[in-house]
Design goal:
It is globular, with a radius of gyration of 20 Å. By secondary structure, the chain is an alpha/beta fold. Strand 3, helix 4 and strand 4 form a beta-alpha-beta unit. Helix 6 packs parallel to helix 8 and helix 8 packs parallel to helix 9. The protein contains eleven helices and eight strands. The chain has a single domain, classed as TIM Barrel, CATH 3.20.20.70. It starts with a strand and ends in a 6-residue tail after the last helix.
């Protein structure tokens, strides 16, 4: 499973990228606002830093303006994935932009039917939102599983990008089901390395090493 990092913070992206933990980046207007920087400027810097897809979101709601904004965003770098909302106008824009050879990430997906439409419109990625479904007492992982089944049934090449990931268990379950990609904040990716037994074992090893006077350098 590919790891995308869901942030616009350059330092966090660089740290994970240096470790080989970044296959791409997802951004949105809210994340750009948090960074306090110009959307085109910060997106260009991210594209220069990572080699994988960088999702940059349009802010229009009608298809014609979405297409114009998508073309503008795609000019930033060849690894831009234009991020479009899963609305009827968004699907229209997806069909046009994907037909022009641009990567498209269709976002705010909350049903398998929506995911089916996005695949038929030529989306490169579909972004089902796990955490937001959990918030209303619907198991977001069921949606990932339904989309995986449908795409496999018919050979759709649209990649499932598990989004709105908030916990390490979301990551684990997405991997088990077979999501192609997951995107998560830097802190969630870092927590994947944490385990209390690892900490306990390391503490014991260090105590034993100190009592035995073991030094490596």
């Amino acid at each position: 499973m590919k790891f995308f990092v869901d942030t616009a913070e350059i330092d966090a992206i660089r740290e994970l990228n240096d470790l080989g933990m970044v296959d791409g980046v997802t951004t949105n207007p809210s994340l750009i606002k948090k960074s306090g920087r110009d959307i085109l400027e910060v997106t260009k810097e991210i594209c220069d830093l990572v080699s994988g897809p960088v999702s940059a979101e349009v802010v229009a709601t009608d298809s014609e303006t979405m297409i114009a904004e998508g073309r503008k965003l795609a000019e930033i770098a060849p690894n831009i994935a234009v991020k479009l909302p899963l609305t009827w106008d968004g699907l229209k824009a997806c069909k046009v932009l994907s037909g022009e050879g641009k990567m498209v990430n269709v976002t705010l997906c909350f049903s398998a039917n929506q995911a089916l439409l996005a695949a038929k419109a030529g989306a490169t990625f579909i972004s089902p939102f796990i955490g937001r479904l959990d918030d209303i007492n619907i198991d977001g992982m069921d949606l990932i599983a339904d989309i995986r089944t449908i795409y496999d049934n018919y050979g759709y090449e649209t990649q499932i990008l598990a989004a709105s990931i908030r916990t390490v268990n979301h990551v684990l379950e997405s991997a088990r089901i077979g999501a192609d990609v997951m995107t998560a904040p830097p802190e969630v990716i870092q927590k994947l390395a944490a385990h209390p037994l690892t900490d306990k074992g390391l503490e014991t090893f260090l105590k034993d090493a100190a009592s035995a006077g073991i030094k490596i350098v």
